[in-house]
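Example: M3 family oligoendopeptidase.
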Amino acid sequence: MQTFENYTYERPDMPAEKEKFNALLNKFKEASSYKEATEAIEAINKRRNTLATMFNLVYIRASIDTNDAYYQKERDFFDEVSPEISEMATAFYKELVSSPYREELENQWGSQLFQIADYQIKSFSPEVMNLLQEENKLSSSYSKLVASAEVEFQGGTYTLAQLGPFAEHKDRAVRKEAMNASAGFFSEHADKFDEIYDKLVKVRHEIAVKLGYKNFVELGYVRMQRIDYNAEMVDVFRKQVRDVIVPLASKLYKKQAERIGVDKLKFYDVNFDFKTGNATPKGSPEWIIENGKQMYKELSDETNEFFQFMLDRNLMDLEAKKGKEAGGYCTLIEDYQAPFIFANFNGTSGDIDVLTHEAGHAFQAYSSRNIGVPEYLFPTYESAEIHSMSMEFFTWPWMELFFKEDTEKYKYAHLASGLHFIPYGVAVDEFQHLVYENPEWTPDERKQAWKKLEETYLPHIDYDGNAYLEAGSYWQRQGHIYDVPFYYIDYTLAQICAFQFWKKSREDQEKAWGDYLHLCKLGGSKSFLGLVEAANLRSPFEQGTVEDTVAVIEEWLESVDDKAL
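Written out as structure tokens, the predicted fold is:
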């Protein structure tokens, strides 16, 4: 059995790859029967999977260690050639949608593949190749800049992730110092962050215009493959959040201030939930994994098999360390049918959230790994986040393994933070709409727009004199804004779906798990609303869904004596 360390990377020889690909594409074009067409598609997909495998091995290894010169160089190579790989995929999609065997192919693979193909065709043209390369380089430069953070704090040097526990410290002065130190890194490089984003906005706008769109908002939705909803529906959803969740979140923040004994919540208090200290895992990362093993064994046969697969092959890199990129993610290494989990454990309850959240993504990828269509290995982003956020709730019965006497604290804070997150997620989305509708804005105009959105969606925020944050710069630490434009509303839509799974699992765990398992096995074979329906969930866009879903959460939070925790 091969482990991750032994997965082989070899830089693709692009001229040779293109030659092989074009030969296979000709076979598909000239197929004289449905059987021949299918065989050609399978051969094309095999080549595409191998290229994706090489890309993912580079991406993972370069993000684990940004100081690894070899993999940084390979990452630069992929920044350069990935638009060429997109060009190959687009050429295939053009033949696919116009194939004389389309009807039979659609019967076999479903219509979602053809809708994805249409969207990919609409989002690419060889004339934007150099602009796409520029976009990739700028996006990578943001990730590398954040990963370079080495913050001096109380006599030590920390990455941004390693500062996390200090932001939850019982001593308010320590929290304040830690949050200011973290913001200090961004403030110190504010001009660079502005410059990178300014260039990204302009490059993306130029790509959109060259492809025939009014602005990048339209292209952004096409890139995100939003097949069955549009910007107007998202706007309606944001209004529901504004009317229903913002007042509730404000009420919860007031309760938090009382609970931790402060007159007014400051930005460095937000992560501190209880006067007696936040819930934290009661052991080392190794101990967490051992308990994770027990949890996934007891949850279901499927999760037991999946988690053992991950452990046997070393498919997780979990601890925060110097030179490692920020955040957490899950990806799939196609040729090995192996999901991979990347995280930054730092001793906070977030370590368990990552273990359940990213494992939700990985479990879905594992469940649908044999689906036979590369486009279906993962669904579109907002659907993918349902798997991850719902797994956080399906594992609730096992939280005592990790938190012991802090279990109730964890559950209360976990549910409340899900609610708190939604207005922020919606603000990030609206910010991006405004930015790309106004590509000529200066960095200062963008910051003014962010400040206004904070007033609307995050009225509790008080930066206590931190000039950098008060200027409207907080968004610079949100990597998605730089790397994957418009990928953020997805979390909020998925959170509403995950809350529904939380409610269902409390009423009938077996039935809820059955729906979830079915959803995971479908992979990306349906659109977002198609998957929501298949999982027996209500659409977040439907009037009243937000209100009804959140009412149950509020009722549970109200039933807890939070001051006693």
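The mean pLDDT is 96.
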